[in-house]
Amino acid sequence: MKFKVLIVFVFVVAVFKVPAIQPTLNTESENSLKSENVNADSLMRGLFSDTISTPKIPTIASKANAKPSPKNDITPVETKITDLEIPAIDTIIHFSVPVKLQRVKVDSLLFLANPFFIELVYKGLPFDFNWNVKPDFRTLYYGRKATTLSDCLLRPVETKSAEQSVADLRQYARDQIIRNAADLYVMTFEDLPDPELYKSHLIKGKSIRNIRFVTDDQAFSHRRLIVRREQIGPWQYKAKADAQFSQNYVSSNWYQGGNSNIAILGIITGQLNYDNKKGIQWENSGEWHMGFNSIAGDTLRTLSTNDDVFKINSKIGIKAGGNFFYSGSVDFSTQFFNSYNGLNSTEMKTSFLTPVRLNVGVGMDYKYKKIFSLMLSPVSYKYIYVNSRTIDPNLFGVKTGERVLSEIGSSFTATYSCALSREIQLDSKLTFYTNYQKVEIDWETVFNMKINRFMSTRISINPRYDNTVIFATGENAKIQFKQLLSVGFYHKFY
Length: 494
What we know:
Order of helices and strands: HHHEEHEHHEEEEEEEEEEEEEEE
Strand content: 35-45%
Distance between the termini: 90 Å
Number of domains: 3
Shape: elongated
Oligomer: single chain
CATH architecture of the largest domain: Beta Barrel
Number of strands: 18
Strand order of the largest sheet: 5-6-7-8-9-12-13-14-15-16-17-18
Number of helices: 6
CATH class of the largest domain: Mainly Beta
Structural class: mainly beta
Largest sheet: 12 strands, antiparallel, barrel
């Protein structure tokens, strides 16, 4: 017990000696304060009694009016503890030494805006419950929190940035509104609109024109920087043209032998989409593939058709809620050129407008951003028309002697389009149709890999299964497969 009293005595003496030694006072003041002695008996008596001893430090007079003072001139003033709001013995006063603060530059708009002008969106109260509570047995035993020496040490001043102070002020205002006037909130954070819907929101401003490419090299001073014009409004369009080919020439006297060949592929694609950002989306796309190649040993034709398709797809959707749309779709496809069964064959497989395919579906469409779409059509209409009479209609499911197939069934279409990287674009489309007796499945996956500004590589993989075809006796449907790899030029139109 005596040891504790001695520690308290040394600490109290040090506290009262610190204010007496200030570097800012003049020499005479320092000498005057250093000459004063503190009455330790009164301090100890006030510490362990029911009163507080408040030392009264004499006023330091000027040099001219300075008078000698008694050696012990500190008179304790007795004050009852009951007059104070905080008990004297257990009271800890935290203070900090003032230092010169650094000036911080802050955006003036942060303070010009009213910090209470906040959005009334309910975000919920912060969940700050501490599960890892460790009991303080000293507090349970003594009835109050024990005071340690570390509580009496100087603590650094915690300073917050201006942005954090304004954010805390607004959060405090939100919490008060939640506790006292929660009826002022009209929506929650989950009810806010998706920012993805307003990505292409119109912002009025001056357009940038006549931008030139500047370089120190005079040889390139004539080049101009092409700036894509921003598409404003609900309509968005784009188009692309690819010209890809491969060629191989082998002379007749080449020592290893071989045959010359050439392959040409032309692709034109375009999209025209409408989105009013209010629940109506209309997607339109079209593509035309024209591919020809020369086959060694074919004496009937110089070039044979290896890819020929013309497609138009249209889908309109009305928002039903969330990512779901009430949708209707129309898919049209046909061929323009003649294609034959094989080498030196005169049996045609397709010709001009043979066949003409039309699929119409009505149902529900689920869309995830602009990456994935899955449309289920419980009611789907399939129409096939055969224009040429020299082609077997059984190849398309049309009965012999007829030219038209018309039936009702169900279908679904899943599309996935994503940029795997800046240079690689993946497009995949899976279609399924059934007339409740037979099925038709088509899955096309295309990788478009950009080499540079003018050249690209295209890889196309297309498996297909169709047992709606009318086969001869003893034949069954088999999986069909088509793959194509080509390199060539491309150009985008915006």
